[in-house]
Amino acid sequence: MRCDCRYLPSGKFDLRSYDRLVELQIANGVDGVIVGGTTGEGHLMLWDEHIMLIAHTVNAYGDRLKVIGNTGSNSTGEALHATEQGFAVGMHAALQINPYYGKTSMRGLRAHFAALLKEGPAIIYNVPGRTGQDIPDALVQELAAHPNFLGVKECTGNSRIGNYTQQGINCWSGNDDEAHDGRHHYGSAGVISVTANVIPGLFAKMMHGPPDPELNAKLQELIAWLFCEPNPIPLNTALMMCGLVRPVFRLPYVPLSREEREKGAKLLRAVQEHIPGCREVRVMEDDEFLLVGSAHS
């Protein structure tokens, strides 16, 4: 699961809300968390915040689930430093992305990942929609020979996941809408999920239980709504509407429009019994949301 992190009105971490969310995830069958990923807004954190949150998660929950720190960066040096710190505070593995924005060559990609895999166990993250550059199959096959290579979080679809798993390469789906079929028809190890922040038990059932195409079909509209704007905007809005976190956004993220919140409220109410800790789903008023620029706002 890609674990969401929330904030106090000061913009600082709301660790009580974070801990409550993680406890609910564990109680509902989640096996591990990504700390400081896209969903967890690692890109909006200072590195000292990022490493602190990894350390906190390890110290509080490391004996009950796997803690994977998103310590990747488009700067190899920065990623190395963050990864060293992450392992120093006890994370079990790292999530490593290919350089984004300032993209590199294939030789550069090879050197980037080779340097990072020396630091410890890692999942390679392929999400061309965010990085603007695909990690080629041939490079993944080469990296898979490294003893610290754990597998790939793959966001380009089940066909590719199936191709990798046939070669013995572990894959986790990065697409919630395809995760059921990825698991049961293409051999994925599971999913690194956004939607599981809201309905962890149902996603655990789809990943650990037998194929359940009916449940998968029922969840598709909710999953689509959770991606109606760039992640994690809809998820954050949903958690606030469910009363699970404070209604505080770190800019540049802002809540969904009232129209989208009204759509989402209907979808969330339809699964409310499966949303741990949710007593009520509210559409909320625009003035209930607080927007902060940083932890010092």
How does this structure look, described?
With 297 residues, the protein is an alpha/beta fold. It has helices spanning 15-27, 47-61, 76-88, 106-117, 128-131, 137-143, 158-166, 179-185, 200-208, 213-225, 233-241, 258-270; strands at residues 32-35, 66-70, 93-97, 122-126, 149-154, 171-173, 190-191, 248-250, 290-292. The strands form two sheets. Strands 1-2-3-4-5-6-7 form a seven-stranded parallel sheet, covered by helices on one side. The chain is globular, with a radius of gyration of 18 Å.
Low-pLDDT residue spans? none
Number of strands: 9
Radius of gyration over alpha carbons?
A: 18 Å
Q: What portion of residues is helical?
A: 40-55%
**Beta-strand proportion:** 5-15%
Order of helices and strands: HEHEHEHEHHEHEHEHHHEHE
What count of helical segments does DSSP give?
12
Could you tell me how far the N terminus lies from the C terminus, measured between alpha carbons in angstroms?
Answer: 30 Å
What's the oligomerization state?
single chain
Overall mean pLDDT? 95
- Class derived from helix and strand content: alpha/beta
